[in-house]
Amino acid sequence: MSIKKSILKPDEMAALLKLKFGSKKIMGPRKNGKISNNGNLAFCYDTLDKVSRSFAAVIRQLPDEISDVVCLFYLILRALDSIEDDMDLAQDVKTKLLREFHTKNYEKGWNLSNVGDKQEYRDLLANYHKVIEAFLELDVKYQKSITDICKKMGNGMADFGEKEITTLEDYNLYCHYVAGLVGIGLSEIFAASGIDNKELESQVALSNSMGLFLQKTNIVRDYKEDLDEKRFFWPKEVWSLYSPRFEDFPLNPEKPESIACLNHMVNDALSHATDCLDYLKMLKNERVFRFCAIPQVMAIATLAEVYNNHKVFTENVKIRKGLAAKLIVRAGSIQEVVKTYKEMASVIANKITFGLPNAEETLELVQKINDFCELALTEANKSPEIA
Ligand code: MG
């Protein structure tokens, strides 16, 4: 299998997020006083802006203490992913690096030259000693969480280095390694900080679903782009029900079999939606909530756009900028997010072509989402938040 996909690389929400949150500059020591060498931290935030302007905006709006932690968590996983994605690296070298990468965060001075398929990733790895310095100044509890996730992700990436995604089980496992673990690590960080609900740490399944929902949405949406780059993420167990060859869907994008396959994949992603709402319901801090909710509302809107949409096979389908802007603005509370999910469930319901395979499953899934949303809205009206 070729280059792997990552939720660490979202699309062009950057400008919108910047509009909403502005750009926070680093001015002197941080409030938590944990990181004293501002040169290293400045490098980290600077690099964060370069490798992901979208995530930079939502990470910067987090409360100060966890903003630094999440920035480093992001950069460390971004560096790991850059190793995974570098197709010029010999497989045995890559496998060893991926499995050992978590130990490098404790090796002062360590860096890696000429690895990464883009200049900004090469710069990150070539200056990795600065990330290490900043990492080592984090509270030990955060270092442990980050290292644990980094170790599991690196080993998972290495396992899949020479293995195809064949079964649905493979698909779920791969998505767990590259995305579910991000959700699990973030829950640990939020809980450990005391800034948000301590119970998040034990919500491993819900945290995993948060990552899987985003990852699977990207995998469905990016069929064409990934095929062009010879990347195959749709499990054979699913697509082989509809076509003898994965690359044949664009030849007959409007054929019922092609649409049924696409909808099968959308249904699989949608099955995580209520878990995500359950997770978001648990969050207490408004900034943490926004950080978690923004990618989720983008994902459900993307699924509504790609559902039953043959264009996925031939072009890069995206949600409208205006809709994206509206969703970002409306991601500040569980009530708003539930309303968005309810709206998008109804968009999908209206697109169902009955008689096509998987239509009944879609109907069941959107009804489940709708029921969940109605219940959540009733609960919210019964017990209004005390300001
Ligand atoms: Mg990758």
Describe the biggest sheet?
Answer: none
Give me the oligomer status.
single chain
Shape: globular
Assess the beta-strand content as a share of residues: under 5%
Would you list the SSEs in sequence order as H and E?
A: HHHHHHHHHHHHHHHHHH
Q: What's the helix count?
A: 18
Per DSSP E runs of 2 or more residues, the count of β-strands stands at: 0
CATH class of the domain at 1-27 and 228-387: Mainly Alpha
Helix/strand-derived category reads mainly alpha
| Name given to the CATH homologous superfamily of the domain at 1-27 and 228-387 | Farnesyl Diphosphate Synthase
Distance between the termini: 52 Å
- CATH fold topology of the domain at 1-27 and 228-387: Farnesyl Diphosphate Synthase
The low-confidence parts are 25-33
Overall pLDDT level? 91
Describe, in plain words, how this protein is organized in 3D.
With 387 residues, this protein is mostly helical. The protein has a domain at 1-27 and 228-387: Farnesyl Diphosphate Synthase. 66% of the residues lie in helices and 0% in strands. The chain is built from 18 helices and no strands. It has helices spanning 14-21, 38-51, 53-60, 64-85, 91-104, 119-126, 128-136, 140-159, 168-193, 204-221, 223-228, 236-239, 256-270, 273-282, 286-306, 321-329, 334-351, 359-382. Helix 4 (64-85) runs antiparallel to helix 9. It is globular, with a radius of gyration of 21 Å. The N and C termini lie far apart (52 Å). Mean pLDDT is 91; it is low at 25-33. It binds magnesium ion. Magnesium ion binds at residues 4, 6, 81, 84-85.
